[in-house]
Amino acid sequence: MLRSSSPQTLDGVLWAEAASSAALRQYCALPKKGKPQGRESTVLAAFLISSPENPLNPTVLSLATGTKCLGAARLGPRGDLVHDAHAEVIARRALLRLVYAEISAENPSSWLVASGADGRWRLKDGHQLHLYITQLPCGVMPVPPSPLEVRREQLDTMVNGYSDVGFVQRKPGRGDTTLSVSCFDKITRWCVVGIQGFCIEDNVVKVLGARLSCLSGKVPDPLKPSKPLFFEAPIPPKEFQQTSGDIPPLTCGYSICWNKSGLHEVVLGTTGRKQGTSSKAASLPSTESLLCKIRLAEAFISLEHPLVTKFRHEKISYRAIKDMACEYQQILELLRKAPFFAQWRAKPTSVDSFTVPRS
C-alpha cells in the first residue's frame, strides 16, 4: 500500500491523547471475553486513521491485545496457526483483513483509493495511518550502536554466535525458544515495505531512525523508508501496565482481534487457535483464526488483483504467492543485508510451503 500525499502536521500531545482515547474507548466497548482477569495484564495495539478535515478525531480501524507467541517446536506446516499473537502483529493482520474488505466492497472506501492500473492502493490525500501501543514494543533498544560498535558486534557474533546490541532480536519467552522476531524489528520492517506512520513513546525514535537511515539511498520508490513520528500517550489503565505495585501482574494468554469490518475473535496465544478449542478439535478448520496465514491468503486470492487473478485456478503455495511480489521481495532482501538486519533469522521453509485452497 502506497503512502498518501500532503501529510497533515499534528499537535503531538493533543493527537496522542485523541488516539489513546479512541483506542481505549473501542476496547472498552468490546465484550469481556479475552480480556485480562484479576492480576492479569496485557498489551493493547490499535491502528487508527486520521482525515485532513478532522485530524484530532481518529477512527480506530483495527485493534488487538496479546503478549504470547508459539515456540519453534510448535510451528505448524499447514498455515492454520497464529504463530505470533503479540498485540502489534495481530492488530496489523486485522488491518490487512480490513484492507481486503475495503478493496472488494461495492461502495468506495472512505480512506483508500486505487493508484494506477497495477492493483496498487494508497491512502487518500491528507489521510494518515497511525499505530497506538500501550507500552514500548518488545525488542526496543535504549541507544543505537555507533559504526564502531556495529563492527565489534559483527565480530563478536562470528566468534561467539550471539548478539546483544544493535541487531534483530527474537521475542522473549520461556521454555521452547520462539523464532518470532521482536515487534520493534517487525515495526521497523513495516516502515520500509508496508504499513507506516504510528504513535509510540518518544525514546524509540532514535533507534528506528538510525536503522532506517542505512536504507534511505537504496530503496526505490514507492517503497522508500518512511521516517515515523512518535508521540507519547497518557499512561494507560492498570490492565495494560506490566508493573503495578509490589506484586507483578500475570500476562493474559488471550489475544483479542477486532477490526472495523466486523472481525471479532479471541485467540489463545499459546496454541495459535481460537479460544475454547478442545484437544479433540485442535485440527478442525472451525478452530482456525481468520488471521492465520492460510485464512489471510484465501482472503487475498479472492480479490480482483492483477497479481492473483492470473493464478486463481492453479494450485499454488503460500510461499509462491509471496515470491510473486517481486518488488516486495527485493526490498526485503535489501533490508536483510543492511547492518542492523543482517542477523534476521528466516523461519523454516516448511511453515510457508502449504497450498492455499482456491475459492
UniProtKB/TrEMBL annotation:
One family name in Pfam for this protein: A_deamin
Example of a GO MF term: double-stranded RNA adenosine deaminase activity
Coiled-coil boundaries: none
Top-rank taxon, per record: Eukaryota
GO CC, alphabetical: cytoplasm; nucleolus
Biological processes annotated in GO: adenosine to inosine editing; RNA processing
Signal sequence extent: none
Name this polypeptide is given: A to I editase domain-containing protein
Source organism of the structure: Aegilops tauschii subsp. strangulata
